[in-house]
Amino acid sequence: MVLRFTRAGALSACAMLPLMLGCAGESLSGDGVVLTSSVPQFAATPSPASFPAEPSHPAMQPQAIEAAARNFRQCLGALWPTAARRGVSRATFDAVTRGLEPDLSIMEKLDHQPEFSKPVWEYLETLVSEKRIALGREMAARHAATLEQVERQSGVDRYVVAAIWGVESNFGTMMGDRSVLRSTATLACVGRRQAYFRDEFVNALEIVHRGDIAAAEFTGSWAGAFGQTQFMPTAFKRHAADFDGDGRRNIIGSVADALGSTANMLKRSDWQTGAGWGYEVTLPESFDFLLADRSIRKPIRQWESLGVRRVGGQGFPRHGDVARLMLPAGAQGPAFLVVGNFNSIMKYNPSEAYALAVGHLADRIRGGGAFAQSWPRDQLPLSRSERFEMQERLAALGFYRGQADGKLGPGTRAAVRDYQARAGLAPDGFPNSQLLERLRRGR
Fold first, then answer.
1. How many Cβ atoms sit within 10 Å of the Cβ of residue 92?
2. Taking Cα atoms as reference points, which of 250, 205, 243, 242 lies closest to residue 226?
3. In whole angstroms, what is the distance from residue 408 CA to residue 292 CA?
4. How does strand 34-36 pair with strand 178-179?
5. Least enclosed by CB within 10 Å: which of 11, 67, 179, 415?
6. Domain ranges of the chain
7. Cβ-based neighbours of 276, under 8 Å, separated by 6 or more
8. Do the Cβ atoms of 166 and 129 come closer than 8 Å?
9. Of 223, 81, 100, 229, the residue nearest 165 (C-alpha)
10. Are 231 and 34 in contact (CB under 8 A)?
């Protein structure tokens, strides 16, 4: 028996996207890009007592951090053979590491796990504000020739490139003021991600040795992301381009290099020229919400045959493009069909909310309007402890088989979907306080 759930009877839900915003308002992505917000950074170095009371990793225990800090000079010295194999000169290595001390304030940010998540609509309103839209249109006009050349050479939509520029650094006005060399060196020798950051630090040394960016100018975020479009050193090494032709790949000081490098990264992430990122759509009353799954992809013409329509009566320009249905705020919020280029943006930062913000900001800079459908603002996200409780209750009922961790990964969403389907609710996979209360009542 196949159950179908109508839009009219769907359970209101809000997106639960734990963005892992640290004290500096940043979230490290999988491909070396940092998601930023306007949350101020803490400059003071905390004492060991100010570290999280129950660190999630042995290397984050105060005693382990103190021991690693005492061993910092030896740790840096042990990285010299790797740097030498990468072509870094001894002079560059010594100049960078001489007098370098760890920045232990980073540890608080590295292990920060916020109790509360921001609703997706608040996240979008922060990144796609009217002020940012206006500035984006101004900057797109000011740098029209560069953006046109970037699009012509890469095939990547110039407005998406401009939107990433806006989201990552507010068009070059918020790039971070911490030493990238000190940050990556600290994380290479202290804390729970040393293996990852050793490579980042050595790649940062390579950038200085090549002359792309001088050590004194090499500033960025606490996690080591830098430049107008916030690349990690490894991402820079793979994708940075000398777009202005001055012999340096300088994404801090050169708008052209930053925009060209971003387009280059998207192009290498399977960007399809002319395909856009996706469309806001409406769903029929009888829509089957089991189809709103990341694993289900259909040509747009098939979605149309199921009653999915573009908002405002507009037609789809490319009926053969393969798309998936996304409900970022559950069954009662806006719906989107997203195509392959949406996934390309997610390779820049692996967050659906991030990719949606970039796509929407690109459309607004282009001259488009706001989303047509409203968000379910009466619903509050579950806190981390509530998500933990929800997982335990789903496990007790036999729906969740993973370890309760308070995160909304694929396993948790699948368990929520299965529970909703069994309970006769819309299986959109998005929990809220109503769902948790139902679980508490054992229903």
1. 18
2. 250
3. 16
4. unpaired
5. 67
6. 26-113+178-224, 278-366, 384-440
7. 157, 317, 318, 339, 341
8. no
9. 229
10. no
DSSP state of 240: -
How many CB atoms are located within 10 Å of the residue 262 CB? 32
Residue given tokens 């068009």 in the structure block: 171
Report which of 189, 427, 176, 156 is spatially closest to residue 267, judged by C-alpha positions: 156
**What is the per-residue burial (b if ≥16 Cβ within 10 Å, else e) of 388-410?**
ebbbebbeeeebbeeebebbbee
pLDDT band at 45 (very low <50, low <70, confident <90, very high): very low
pLDDT in the model for residue 378: 86
Is it the case that residue 209 has pLDDT exceeding 70? yes
> Which sign does the torsion angle of CA 265, 271, 274, 278 carry?
negative
Q: Which numeric CATH code is attached to 26-113+178-224?
A: 1.10.8
Rounded distance between C-alpha atoms, residue 240 and residue 234, angstroms: 10
For residue 247, give both structure tokens: 């012999």
**245 Cβ contact list (under 8 Å, min separation 6):** none
35 sits in which H/E element: strand 34-36
H/E run at residue 398: none
Average pLDDT, the chain: 87
**55 pLDDT exceeds 90?**
no
Distance between CA atoms of 427 and 182, rounded to whole angstroms? 47
pLDDT digits (tens, 9 = 90+) for 233-269: 999 999 999 999 999 999 999 999 999 999 999 999 9
Token pair for 257 = 């290099």
Sign for the CA dihedral angle at 366, 367, 368, 370 comes to positive
Q: How far apart are CA 378 and CA 173, in angstroms?
A: 34
Q: Specify the pLDDT at position 3.
A: 35
3-state secondary structure of 309: strand
Cα dihedral sign, 191-197-199-204: negative
| Identity of the amino acid at 409 | G
> CA-CA distance, 235 to 218, in Å (whole number)?
15
Q: Identify the H or E element spanning 329.
A: none
Beta strands in 112-177 (DSSP E): none
The residue type found at 72 is F
In terms of residues, how long is the chain?
Answer: 443
Euclidean distance between CA atoms 257 and 28, whole angstroms? 22
